[in-house]
Write a structure and sequence with these properties.
This protein is an all-beta fold. It is built from no helices and ten strands. A hairpin with a 2-residue loop joins β1 (14-21) and β2. The radius of gyration is 14 Å and the shape is globular.
Length: 117
Amino acid sequence: MDKSVEIFDVESEAFSPVHSFEGWTVGVINFADRLKEENVAKVECHLQTDEFFIPVLGKSVLHIGRNREQRIELEIGKAYNVKKGVWHAVSMSEDAKIFVVENSGTGIDNSEIIFDR
């Protein structure tokens, strides 16, 4: 195969970073039982970066707010930017897939997480 194109497997369960380049990471969220709406146990807040969600399959929901005050059903063909400092969580159906773009290095060291279930 031509070395000018890389192909990545994006079938792993839950969130998985796929590729990082020049300060950005592209990842994918695939269904995991903990991502069913009734099972989502945490909300998170990234302190240094926005997080960009692009749904490509199935049904998924973006929960906004420390107490999940807002529920946004994600539409395929649209992209959603969660601004830095905004509490959020994602839930999804078993057939769903969401691509995520964020600053490389986004993680526990520069985010806050609350487990509420």
